[in-house]
Amino acid sequence: MSNASTVNIANFQTEIMSSDKTVLIDFWAPWCGPCKEFAPTIEEIEKEKTDIKVVKIDVSENPELAKAFKVFSIPTLMVVKDGKIASRSVGVKDKADVLSML
Predict the structure, then answer these.
(1) Per residue in 13-63, pLDDT tens?
(2) Which of 27, 7, 16 lies closest to 53, judged by CA?
(3) 74 pLDDT higher than 90
(4) Residue 76 bridge partners (DSSP)
(5) Res 4: pLDDT
(6) Exposed / middle / buried, residue 102 (Cβ in 10 Å: 0-12, 13-18, 19+)
(7) For residues 37 and 68, what is the distance between their CA atoms, to the nearest angstrom?
């Protein structure tokens, strides 16, 4: 099971925008088959890359965050560095592709 922080509108600013680490955001939903398929890759990266922070945003529970980030399809990954989106990817990717985003 992932140790990734669950982010919502209440803790978004603290967890992501004010983080002193690079943040990998996984926009997902429990009903999303590709999201479930992708979860082990995200968990592996989370265990291996201790210099980054991995967070998950459930788009079903946080539609306002999905809308704010223009997430129309899941899974969507975003990398935030110094409070700004550095990269973004839609769909299931292999581990190397995700690591190259960081």
Answers:
(1) 999 999 999 999 999 999 999 999 999 999 999 999 999 999 999 999 999
(2) 16
(3) yes
(4) 27, 90
(5) 78
(6) middle
(7) 25
Q: How distant, in Å, are the alpha carbons of 60, 67, 73 from that of 32? A: 10, 18, 10
CA distance 2 to 18: 22
Confidence of residue 5 (pLDDT cuts 50, 70, 90): confident
Beta-strand ranges (E) seen in 1-102 are: 5-6, 22-28, 52-58, 76-81, 84-90
**Angle at 74 (CA atoms; ends 86, 84), nearest 5 degrees:** 15
With a cut of 70, say whether residue 71 has pLDDT above it. yes
Q: 66 Cβ partners below 8 Å, 6+ apart?
A: 27, 57, 59
Distance in angstroms (rounded) separating the CA atoms of residues 10 and 85:
19
Catalytic residues: 32, 35
Percent of the chain at pLDDT exceeding 90: 89
From the list 78, 87, 92, 82, the residue with the least C-alpha distance to 26 is 78
